[in-house]
Batch of 2 targets.
Target 1
Amino acid sequence: MITIVSGTNRPESKSREVADFYKKLLLQNDTESQILDLMDLPADFTFSALYQNSGKNEQFNSLRAIMENSTKYVFIVPEYNNSYPGVLKAFIDGLSYPNALIHKKCALVGISDGIQGNVLGLSHLTDVLNYLGTHVLAQKVRIPLMKKNFMEGEIQDAFIHQLISEQARLLLQF
Amino acid sequence: MITIVSGTNRPESKSREVADFYKKLLLQNDTESQILDLMDLPADFTFSALYQNSGKNEQFNSLRAIMENSTKYVFIVPEYNNSYPGVLKAFIDGLSYPNALIHKKCALVGISDGIQGNVLGLSHLTDVLNYLGTHVLAQKVRIPLMKKNFMEGEIQDAFIHQLISEQARLLLQF
Amino acid sequence: MITIVSGTNRPESKSREVADFYKKLLLQNDTESQILDLMDLPADFTFSALYQNSGKNEQFNSLRAIMENSTKYVFIVPEYNNSYPGVLKAFIDGLSYPNALIHKKCALVGISDGIQGNVLGLSHLTDVLNYLGTHVLAQKVRIPLMKKNFMEGEIQDAFIHQLISEQARLLLQF
Amino acid sequence: MITIVSGTNRPESKSREVADFYKKLLLQNDTESQILDLMDLPADFTFSALYQNSGKNEQFNSLRAIMENSTKYVFIVPEYNNSYPGVLKAFIDGLSYPNALIHKKCALVGISDGIQGNVLGLSHLTDVLNYLGTHVLAQKVRIPLMKKNFMEGEIQDAFIHQLISEQARLLLQF
C-alpha cells in the first residue's frame, strides 16, 4: 500500500492539496493510495505519544499503524524555515523503531512559496529516512512559487507536471 | 542575555543535564545565563501556537519572548533519528519571523548515545539558523557515547571537556 | 556491471584497500565487480578533461566510459575535511551529463581515522548522486577509527562486518 | 586582508565576474580586497600538491599562502551537480591544517544558471568551513538564473543587489 503523507498540521494546507493531486496521479497509473494528513495528529502528541508515553495514545497509534502497514510513501514537504516542518519530524520521531520504515521506499515532493521548493528540507529528510532504512527515489520534485505553479488542485507549470508524472511512474517501479 | 536551549521535551532529559552543566561553565567565565527547557512547552503547542494561532498561546508566548530578548544562544541538541528533535524545530517554527533570531549568535552542542554526537543534526540546524539570520559558531561540540562521556552532571572525557570550555569562551567573544 | 569507486587519488590509500575488500565480498555473493581507482586519473584532469576540454582527454574518457557502462556502484568515500574528497567530486563533475549516472543504483561506504566515518560526506554525496538520478541505498556503512577497525585487508569489528555484508546483499537486490 | 575566492577553474567563468563585482562592492565600503582565482591553480595540483606532495608545489604554495595570510574571505561558489565544484574542495583539501582557516570569517555567494543559486552547495561548504574553524556569515546570498540576474559585471535584480550589499557590510563588521 502507498501512503501519501501531507507533511504539515496546518489547516487547509497546500500540502494537502498537493497530496490530493498526487493521489489522482497514482490513480491514473492504476494504483490506489491513501492520504495521511498530519492535521489528524492529536493536538498534544509531542507529549502524549512520545518517550515514556510511546504507544499510549490511541489516535496517534492509528496513524502509526498506517505507516507501519505501508510499503511505499510519498512525502509532501512544505518549506518551513529552510527545512521540513518540525511537526513532520516529531511525527517520525514517534514511529516505532526500527521496524516502521526499514526496507520501505519513498518519493519526496518539496513545496514552497519562495523559489527553492524546499531543496534543503528534502536533503535533511533524506538523511533521516535513509537512517531509518527507507530508500529515497533519486528523482525528487520541487514545486517552488506555489501560488503561481499550483492552482485549483492542478500543477500549472508543464515542466513540473512532467517531472512529477515521471516521479510517480518511477516510484511504482522502485 | 545568553539563553541555553535544552532541545527536547523529554522528561528528565540528558539535554537538560548538559544545559545545567553549560550554565555552570558560563558562570565560571563570569557570565550569567538562563535555561529554556522545551519540557516547558504547552503540550498542544503544535496546534495552539502555530499558523492561525500564532501569538494566541500565552505559555508559548512567554518562551517566545525569552528567545526574542536574548542575543546569544547555546543549543543542546540530542540526536533523534539522525537529526534534531522534531519538537525543537516545531518550537523554532513557532517563533516570530523575521525578528526573533536575526543578527543573533549561537553555539551548538550535539549529544547522542551512539558515536556520532548528532553531527548531521547540527548541520541541519545550522541550515535553519543561518536562514533565520543567526550566526553559528564554527566550533560545534559533539558529545557521543553520553552514557560514558557524561555522568553526574560532568563531562568525563578530558578532550571533550577542553573543547566545550573553549567553545564557551569563543561564544563570549563571538 | 558493478563498479567499486575508490574515492581518492591518494597513493596506497585505505580506500583502495576497502575497495579490494568489497570486491571479495561481492564475489562471496557470486557477483563479479571491477574497481575504478581515482589514482588512475590523469594528473591534470581538472584542467584537461573539464569544461571546454570535456571529452578530449583519452585517459579520462576511459574512466568515464567505465562509469557510463556500469549500472550499479559502490563508492568508498574517505573523510576529507568533513566531506568527500574534492577529487571525487571533480571526477563526477567530469562525467557526461545527464546520461552517465541516471537511473543507476549505488551503495556508499564512509571511512575515517576519526570517529565519524564520514557521515557528513555521505550526506553531501547523496545530494549529488540523487541530483544526477542515482538511487542511493538507505543502508550506508561507516567505518570510523580505520586504524583499529580495518587491518590487513579485513574489517576487524564484528558489527561493522555484519553491516557491510548486509549492505552488499541489499545492493544486489536493489 | 579579505580574499575573494573565485570558486572554479573554468576559464572566463561567471564566478570570476562576480568576484570582480564583489571587489568593487567592498571598495565602495572603503575596503581593499584581493581575488584568488582557482584558474591560477597548477594544472596537476590534485597530484603534485596533495598528500605526500603537500608543500612541494611552489605555484600551489603561493595560493596557499594567500589563504593563510587572510583573515576574512568571500567564496563565490558556482553550482556543479547540486554542490560546490570538486576543484574548490580539492583546493581546500590542499591547505595546511589546522592553521590555514581556523578562527577566520567568511561570507558565501552561490551562483547558478538554474533557480537554486547553489543552496545545497553553500550548505555543504558551510559544513566544511565550520569543521576547519571558519565562521560563516548567516546571510548567504544566492544568485540564481545568472544569465538574467547578472549581466555586464553587474547584478540586475534589485533585491539581490540589496542582499549582497547588506552581506558585504555585515562581513566587514563580522
Target 2
Amino acid sequence: MRNTIYYCRNCGFKEELGKHYYWKCPKCGAPLDLIYDIEWRPKGLGIIRYRSMLPVQEIKYLGEGETPLIKRSIKGKSFLFKLEYLNPGGSFKDRGASLTLSYASSLGYSKVVEDTSGNTGIATTLYSRANNMQAVIVMPQYAPEGKKNLIRLLGGKIIETPTRPDAAKKVLELIDEATCYVAHTWNPLFFHANKTIAYEAYEAGFKHGTVVVPIGSGSLLLGIYKGFKDLVDLGLINTMPRIIGVQGASSAPIYELIYGKQYHGDSSIADGIMVRDPPRKHEIAEIIKKHGDIVVVNNDEIISSLKELIKMGFIVEPTSAAPLAGILKYMEDKSNVEEPILLPLTGSGLKMIDYLYSLLKKQ
Amino acid sequence: MRNTIYYCRNCGFKEELGKHYYWKCPKCGAPLDLIYDIEWRPKGLGIIRYRSMLPVQEIKYLGEGETPLIKRSIKGKSFLFKLEYLNPGGSFKDRGASLTLSYASSLGYSKVVEDTSGNTGIATTLYSRANNMQAVIVMPQYAPEGKKNLIRLLGGKIIETPTRPDAAKKVLELIDEATCYVAHTWNPLFFHANKTIAYEAYEAGFKHGTVVVPIGSGSLLLGIYKGFKDLVDLGLINTMPRIIGVQGASSAPIYELIYGKQYHGDSSIADGIMVRDPPRKHEIAEIIKKHGDIVVVNNDEIISSLKELIKMGFIVEPTSAAPLAGILKYMEDKSNVEEPILLPLTGSGLKMIDYLYSLLKKQ
C-alpha cells in the first residue's frame, strides 16, 4: 500500500490505506475513492501483472485476470470479446473480490460478509478461501439453489432472508471487529481492480474504438473507465475509447438520470444488472455523458443475443448477453460506432446449463 | 501445415498433412504420429502463441490455452497448479479439439463425430461451433444429463447407445466423405496440442522439477512429454522433468503394463480416466519407464484430495483430484520428488455443482 489514500469527494475525508478497512466514508457516509501513484511496469501473470497500477500490491492470486480476447465479426463490425467468464469463480467479480479480500486479510480480518444473490457471493467465498477467511453470504431465499450450493461447497455460510432488500439490511448487523463487509457496490477497492480489464485489452491490441459495458452497480464501468484513463494519462493511448453503457429495462436508473425519463419493460432475465439504486450513480452518469451513451434492453433482445453468443461458442449466462443486445440496438439507431468494439462477457453459463438449455429450447 | 508429415512407426506410412484427415494409419491401422520442424517464436495469446511449435498453424482460436499457474504449498512441498479447467469449455480437451477441428475444417469437412461420455464431447461441440461444423456426439444413455444438455445447448446432436463400448462401435458407422471422426484417444493432432501446456508452464517459470499427470487415454501425458522434449531439444531447459503418471484403481492398464500385476480397487468417481485399453499404451509405458513412475489411486484418496483442492479455492471435478491424490501417496512411499511439482487441474466443477456438494457433504 505505497501511499494509497482513501479520499471522500463529498466531505474531503482522507486517510492512508493500511490502518482501516472502509467500504464508505466514515465521516459522511458517501462513496469513497482512492488516490495513488501509478507506474506502467507490467510483469507476471493475471491481475498481479499490474501491481504497480493498483492501490494494493500484496494480492493472493488465484488465477484471476489474464482472460482471453477473441476477435469476431458480427453484422460486418469487428468485435473483441473479453472472456471474463473464464475467471476462476466464473465471473469478472473475482478481480474485485481478490483485491478487496487481500487487503482485508492484511489488516487481520478473519471473517467477511456480503449481501448478494449472485456472482459476488461466489467470488467473495472463493477469495475468502484463498485468504484463509470465513465467508458469510446473506442471500434472499429464492436465490438459485445451484449458486447457494457452490457457496456452501467453497465453505461459505449462507444466511437466508425473505427478500433482497432484507439481505442488504441484515448484512449490516453482522459487521464486527473481526468481520469486514465487502460491499461491492460501494467499495472503491472492488472497482479499482477492474482497471486491469482495460490494461489487458490494451496489451492484447485494443488501442482505440468503443467499449460496451453492462451497468448494474457500475463497478465494471467505473473500473474500465479508470483503467483507460490511466493509459491516456500515461501517454500509452491517445484518446479515451467511447463507452456505451447498457442497462436492463426493469431497472435503468442511469438511463433515467441521463435522459430524465422512465424506461418501461422487462429485463428480469439479466438478474446480474438489476440494481435499483447504485451508490455511485451520479459519477457513472457523468462518465457516460462525457465519453459515450447509454442504451436499454429487454428480455427478448437479451435472449436473441444470448443465442448468438452461444452459437459462436461462448458459454455465458443471460446477463452477459445484455451488452451485445445493447450495442446491436444502438447501431440500428446510430451509425457512429468506432471499431473495434470491446465487449466483456461477464459471467459463466456452466453454472446453469440446464436452465440455459430449457430457456433457449423454448425460443 | 508447413511440412508436417503423418508418420506410422509400425508400417512406415508417410504422407504430408493437407490432403487427408487420418485418425489412425490408413495402411495398418496403428496409431499415427506427426513429424514437423519446430521453432521457438512465441507471439500472441492462447495456444496460437505457439503456432511455430505446432503441426497446424491455422487455428480458430476461442480462448483455449494461456491458463493460470498458481503456486501453493502442500505438506511442505511447492506445487504449481495449472488451471486447465479455465479453458473455454471447462477442460484441457479444448486444446486438442481446437487443433483437430481447425485442421478438419481446412480440408472442407462440414461434420464431425465423436464417441465420449464427457469433456471431449463438450470440447468437440464447442470447436465445431468455432469452425462452422455440425457435431454429432455418440454417448451412452447413462451419461449425465447436464453434460448432454451442454452439448445440445452448443448445437451438438446426441445419439444415445446402451453402453460406452456400443458408442465406440456406433461412431464408426457415421463417418463419411463430409464427416470426420475426432477419435481423441488415437488422433495425433489431438495430443500434440497439449504440448502447449508444457510451453506455458515453462514461460511462467517452470524450468525443472516433477510433473504429475492423470492418465486416461494418455493424450495429456503424451502432449506434456513431447512439449518438454521440444524445450530440451531446443536447449531452453537442461533436462526433462520427472513425470509421475496417475491412474485410477478401477482401470490401470499402464500400471499393469509396467509392473506386470493387476491392481484392484474402485476409482469410479474419476470417470475421466477410466480408459480400459488406450491405443497408445506401449508408448506411454515407455515414457513412464524412462522418465518417471506411476501410481494408482482409489475413490477415498481422490475424494480426500478433492476436498483439499476445493478448500484452496480450485473448483474442479473429481477426476481432476486424482493427480494430487497420486503424488501425495507417492511421496509417502518415496521421498525423491524434486520440486516444484507441476500439476494440471484438468476439468471444471462448475458443470456439476450440486453433485460435488452432495458428494463432499456426505464425507
